[in-house]
Specification:
One of its GO terms (cellular component) is oxidoreductase complex. Belongs to the prokaryotic molybdopterin-containing oxidoreductase family. NasA/NapA/NarB subfamily. The longest helix has 19 residues. The chain folds into five domains: 268 residues, 3-Layer(aba) Sandwich (Rossmann fold), CATH 3.40.50.740; 183 residues, Dimethylsulfoxide Reductase, domain 2; 117 residues, Barwin-like endoglucanases; 106 residues, no CATH class; 58 residues, Arc Repressor Mutant, subunit A (Orthogonal Bundle). The strands form eight sheets. The chain has a seven-stranded mixed β-sheet, with helices on both faces. By secondary structure, it is of the alpha/beta class. The protein is 28% helix and 18% strand. It has 26 helices and 34 strands. Strand 1 and strand 2 form a beta hairpin. Bound molecules: ligand MGD (2 copies), iron/sulfur cluster and molybdenum atom. Molybdenum atom binds next to loops.
């Protein structure tokens, strides 16, 4: 198993010497160790920590670009009240007074906290203590409800506790790794690299189960393109196969209940329900049956479903039936999304949990936590889950809301309705690092938080490894840590027990509470860490005790009253049928180089070059039927809302099942906000939204003109469609509209904030207009308008920003020279077209050959699956996307 590695001492206080600080990446749940070293130019050099057991020195492209996200420019540096800068005292007093007043008038359930799996454990602990222990309401929920809730519910149903049985190392020991509803190559890239390395050395078989052919499929032996939502049918069929082949594990079954009932329920699933070609299905069943060491990794394709919890249990059923759990190289493994999704679960951040894996609905557990906190009250019933919480805000039942480290106006399903509810709420406080997020704009009180690199605490990754995030740069302005903000409000509300001076003290209290939980039988007992040297805490996996070997349940001991695991009968069902009005099922998710609402990755030009505009990936047959040409715009509507997205025609998605990414906001592309379309349908058990299957209608967006602009300064678009991305010299923007402006020169001037174009070129017959803005002899900006999507080498034009004496309009920049295309290798900025040319003309027919020829894929390695995909497309002569 992975053992904690001793780490070097972080910079001693006051030391002037440049010292490398060990910290943890703030993005995905892989939880990679990062070395941050101040460089000679006032920046921070970022490297993977070779001693961190999660990544052993590797970083993906997002992690490697972390240094470029630091800095204080544009940050929220002081509290604001009603848009005016205020002191901390004024802002905190106001929050405390509003919460106190609201509770006095309407009871504790009239206030709520909506927090985040990106909070540090210490922040989360304080939020939970304040809300549950002192305000006396369980109305604290987190964006983990949108993310991990179905896994939590599935674990608790099967194991009696929310415990992840396995570890990353299991992926390297396994003979077969099944990735279900997980685009691991893009979303957990370093874990994917570890898996690919294991495949290269020992031939690990990999199966990907996803309706979409993702980058993850490139490294797989088998891709099952199942019908959306059919996962429970598939795993029910697997359970039947296990039984029929005599693979039930007779030694393990005494530790399991519900075998017969589960099998009986599974018999109702038919191969045709899965949508998988019979040969592929048979190959999968045979492979799973034949591989004792099998890990089934699952993520949002499972969790974000109206039957997410059932899907989780259908998977776990197969592992329990075969006893393939909790031993090296085998088990179900739910990979967590956010850096501290797991820590939030441990600390009881969800509305239906208590701290340290204790149960809110267990009076003994409640009393124990209340006693430990010496708190006046403790809610006996669960609080509202995220979707219901914002409904209660809308209906005025929740009258004071504090949102911390999350952007629900963008990422909640039915996002416009959620934004409307927040806007209409009597009192809203938001803690963020920016003032301009879609949610922050709706706040009455805005609190400046310290961000990554400025704050201290712990996070727990997908394999239960607790690592330190450490500060290595000063906080901008008056920004303060999230825990500090919460504790300060709690004290002002008159509550005792919120007097910590540091996160170390909070961690000590939390570990001590986990000891109390341990005495009540909880598996989450990290009390051995309460006296550790917090500053020097090395990554440590719980349970630390060697008796468990770092894994759970191999001994057949579960956390149910009879110590047995539960197999759950799963009555598999498919998502509700589509209606003629909304005949497409919209799948949503992530792209490789962006993190959620892009408040960090959006700052880094090289992370915009891979996929820098909101898009709709749609099958060629659908596109042809709808009359959607490549690179035009599509209008997507659902009963909830409307979006305009760039058309990306691709047979990676099946007919009827287009895909769109979730990252764009009112700041970056107002009509690209995908959750304005998504229905707030939830899983009945977990309350997790089904973010991947909204019925939509699609038609061409009737653009009369398209434009592409580059500018050294921010632009002021006034048209219906625009999407902005940062480039090295400023910004670039795609624009389009349904009606042309009366005067193009006036329009261009308004776009450039009143600047007067220094040159113009116009050909109205062809719908062509071009304007350039030169000042001080240097190009400040340019905009190219055309009737059809603009043909110009974007990177080339953006690269001319700030250049001297460029006659960009007459020179038709870049049109007559090869366009490198969107960057595939973001580290070395190597475009898709350059790579395709190397494949077709130079015969670079392997990822290694592309590396030798162009350098592509030789830095962080995140693009290697896509390089493989481009080679595959070429050699299989597929229709170009
Ligand atoms: N680059 C990047 N990485 C991230 C993040 C990010 O924003 N950007 N966010 C992090 C977070 S918080 C999370 S939760 C994780 C999410 O990580 P993933 O879950 O891997 O990512 P998603 O793209 O949301 O969805 C995964 C896949 O589910 C598939 N899917 C849709 N419907 C179904 C279905 O019915 N069945 C099956 N089997 N599959 C289906 C989609 O096609 C998609 O490819 O990523 C983390 N890592
Ligand atoms: N359609 C669709 N919707 C989805 C999903 C999907 O797959 N499809 N996925 C869902 C999932 S799994 C998730 S996890 C959510 C993620 O959704 P969100 O959590 O809403 O998205 P983020 O952009 O991560 O929001 C984090 C916010 O915290 C701020 N911030 C950064 N650092 C700090 C800090 O240190 N302190 C404070 N207080 N603030 C800080 C950032 O500026 C940003 O505004 O989206 C969900 N929504
Ligand atoms: S794999 Fe995840 S944790 Fe590791 S560097 Fe990339 S984003 Fe960060
Ligand atoms: Mo997530």
């Amino acid at each position: 198993m992975t053992r904690p590695t001793p780490i070097a001492t972080p910079r001693p206080a006051g030391a002037a010497r440049e010292t490398t600080i060990r910290t943890t990446c703030p993005y995905c749940g892989v939880g990679c160790g990062v070395l941050a070293t101040p460089d000679a130019h006032g920046g921070i050099a970022i490297k993977g920590d070779p001693d961190h057991p999660a990544n052993r020195g590797r970083l993906c492209v997002k992690g490697a670009a972390l240094g470029e996200t630091l800095g204080t420019r544009g940050r929220l540096k002081a509290p604001t009240v009603h848009g005016q800068t205020a002191t901390w005292d004024v802002a905190l007093d106001l929050i405390a007074a509003q919460f106190t007043r609201t509770i006095a008038a309407h009871g504790p359930d009239s206030v709520a906290l909506y927090v985040s799996g990106q909070l540090l454990t210490e922040d989360y602990y304080v939020a939970n203590k304040l809300m549950k222990g002192f305000i006396g309401s369980a109305n604290i929920d987190t964006n983990s409800r949108l993310c991990m809730a179905s896994s939590v519910a599935g674990h608790r149903r099967a194991f009696g506790t929310d415990t992840v049985p396995g570890q990353y190392e299991d992926l390297e020991i396994a003979d077969l790794v099944v990735l279900v509803g997980s685009n691991l190559a893009w979303c957990h890239p370093v874990l994917h690299q570890r898996l690919m390395a294991a495949k290269a050395t020992q031939g690990t078989k990999i199966v990907v189960i996803d309706p979409r052919r993702t980058a993850t499929c490139e490294g797989a032996d088998l891709h099952l393109a199942l019908a959306p939502g059919a996962d429970a049918h598939l795993f029910n069929l697997l359970l039947c196969h296990i039984f029929d082949r005599g693979l039930l594990n007779r030694d393990f079954l005494p530790h399991v209940t519900g075998v017969e009932a589960s099998l009986a329920a599974a018999r109702h699933s038919k191969p045709g329900d899965t949508g998988i070609p019979p040969d592929d299905l048979a190959a999968f069943l045979a492979l799973w049956a034949a591989s004792e060491r099998v890990v089934t990794v699952y993520s949002q394709g499972i969790n974000q479903s109206d039957s997410g919890t059932d899907k989780v249990n259908a998977i776990i059923n197969c592992h329990l039936a075969t006893g393939r759990i909790g031993r090296p190289g085998m088990g179900p493994l739910s990979v967590t999304g956010q850096p501290n999704a797991m820590g939030g679960r441990e600390v009881g951040g969800l509305a239906n949990m208590l701290a340290c894996h204790l149960e809110l609905d267990n009076p003994i557990h409640r009393d124990a936590v209340q006693g430990f906190w010496a708190s006046p009250r403790m809610p006996a019933k669960p609080g509202l889950k995220a979707v219901d919480m914002f409904r209660a805000v809308e209906q005025g039942q929740i009258k004071a809301l504090w949102v911390m480290h999350t952007n629900p106006a963008v990422t909640m399903p039915d996002a416009s309705r959620v934004a409307g509810a927040i806007a209409a709420c009597d009192f809203v406080a938001v803690s963020d690092i920016w003032a301009t997020t879609d949610t922050a704009r709706l706040a009455h009180v805005l609190l400046p938080a310290t961000g990554w690199g400025e704050k201290d605490g712990t996070v727990t990754n997908s394999e239960r490894m607790i690592s330190r995030q450490r500060a290595f740069i000063p906080a901008p302005g008056q920004a303060r840590a999230d825990w500090w903000q919460l504790a300060a409000v709690a004290r002002r509300m008159g509550f005792p027990g919120f007097d910590w001076a540091s996160p170390a003290q909070i961690f000590a209290e939390y570990s001590a509470l986990s000891g109390v939980a341990g005495q009540l039988g909880s598996d989450f007992d990290i009390s051995a860490l309460q006296d550790i040297d917090y500053d020097h805490l090395a990554p440590v996996t719980w349970p630390q005790a060697a008796r468990k070997g770092g894994r759970f349940f191999g001994d057949g001991q579960f956390h149910t009253p009879d110590r047995k695991a539960r197999m759950l009968p799963v009555a598999a069902c498919l998502p509700a049928a589509l209606s003629p009005g909304h005949p497409f099922r919209l799948n949503t998710g992530r792209v490789r180089d962006h993190w959620h609402t892009m408040t960090r990755t959006g700052l880094v030009p090289r992370l915009q070059q891979h996929l820098g505009e909101p898009y709709l990936e749609i099958n060629p047959d659908d596109a042809a039927r709808l009359g959607l040409a490549p690179a035009t715009l599509a209008e997507v509507t659902s009963p909830q809302g409307r979006a305009i997205l760039r058309v990306l025609i691709s047979d990676r998605v099946a007919p009827g099942h287009p895909f769109a990414p979730m990252h764009w906001t009112a700041e970056t592309a107002p009509t690209g906000r995908i959750d304005t379309l998504v229905a707030a349908v939830t899983d009945p058990i977990s309350g997790q939204p089904a973010s991947k299957s909204t019925p939509v209608a699609i038609r061409p967006y009737a653009a009369r003109w398209h434009a592409f602009a580059v500018s050294r300064h921010d632009l002021r678009p006034s048209c219906e469609y625009w999407a902005k991305a940062q480039v090295a010299g400023g910004v670039q923007m795609e624009l389009a509209g349904a009606g042309p402006p009366a005067d193009w020169a006036v329009w261009a001037s308004a776009l450039f904030d009143g600047a007067v174009p220094s040159s113009a070129l116009s050909d109205p017959a062809r719908g062509m207009q071009r304007f350039a803005f030169v000042s001080g002899g240097r190009l400040q900006g340019a905009v190219f308008v055309s009737r059809d999507p603009v043909l110009v080498a974007r990177a080339h034009l953006a690269g001319l920003l700030g250049a001297e004496g460029e006659d960009v309009l007459a020179g038709r920049p870049g049109i007559d020279q090869p366009d490198p295309g969107p960057a595939v290798c973001a580290c070395l900025n190597i475009g898709r077209n350059t790579i395709l040319r190397a494949i077709a003309q130079d015969g670079a027919l392997s990822v290694e050959a592309l590396g030798e020829c162009l350098g592509a894929g030789t830095s962080c390695g995140s693009c290697r699956p896509e390089l493989a995909a481009l080679i595959f497309s070429h050699t299989h002569r597929e229709a170009a996307e």
